Amino acid sequence: MENTTSAHSPSIAVLVPCYNEEKTVAQVVHDFQRVLPEATIWVFDNNSTDRTTEVAKAAGAKVVFSPDKGKGNVVRHMFATIEADIYIMVDGDSTYSAESAPALLKAFHDLSTDMMVGKRCTPASELSHAYRPMHRLGNQFVCGLIRTTFKAPIEDVFSGYRVFSRNFVKTIPLHATGFEIEIEMTLQSLSNGYRVAEIDTPYGSRPEGSFSKLNTYRDGALVVWAFALICRNYKPGLFFGIIAGLFLLLSLAAGIWPILDYVFYQYVFHVPLALLATGLALLSAMSLSIGLILQTQLRYHKEMHALLRRMPQFK
């Protein structure tokens, strides 16, 4: 679906979710004011314990207090609160280049996307500091799952630098509360027919004195869990089909001895295994049935969502 912006001078909102970024937020605000003087810079302070709010206000940003902790909560707050034609979301840690914003906006318009993602490209000299090995590995793993499951050529699912259409911001259903919000936005987009594209953008190290809030293993587990939940909700046929297949394999493994008993002796000696195999086979059939029912319901859900996106207030 094409983005739907105003024909003349569309309004642009730069959304900056922040938590304890007093060292970097002013630089982010100044950089985007310089590159996009027509844009309004909004900083959403997510219960910072430092001077993030004071520094952002002094730099000229409009600051909104966002009380519910977690990046996902802040993103939903931003999307519900701010009115604009085009939205640019960028982290407040000064790792993304404001100089890339015009290129992102151009690609956003030229490709008629609903979400344009700044794919992170880091110089080799900064790679180990800016983009930690476990984060790169996790990104490659999840992108591989997306390419396999959703047939989409996504290469950076965790980028915090994105451009959105108003249609996307006002109609996309989001539920994640933490840093898994990026993967949810990507998968929800692919599931609901929004157009998504990526272009290369520079990605650098955090300035000295600024620290990442990511926990590699905790947030990695949340991301995998979020991926599984979204697959369950938006690919139920595949999700429950895999579960049905696993139950079927277990049923066959448990039932091989009872089957051999009957073939050779016309009597079943391994009765517990026979009961287990029967139960697993029933679970397999139930899982497949659930998947088919939910897949049908999903079709009607997508039709209703498509109608919602056509309503005038979201254009």
Q: Reading side by side through the largest sheet, how are the strands ordered?
A: 3-2-1-4-6-5-7
Sheet bearing the most strands, described? 7 strands, mixed
Radius of gyration, in angstroms, nearest whole number: 24 Å
Head-to-tail CA distance between termini: 12 Å
Please explain how this structure is put together.
The protein is 53% helix and 12% strand. The protein has eleven helices and seven strands. Strands 3-2-1-4-6-5-7 form a seven-stranded mixed β-sheet, with helices on both faces. Helix 1 runs parallel beside helix 2 (52-59), helix 6 (133-150) packs parallel to helix 9 (216-234) and helix 8 packs parallel to helix 9 (216-234). The longest helix has 39 residues, at 271-309. The model is unreliable at 1-7 (pLDDT under 50).
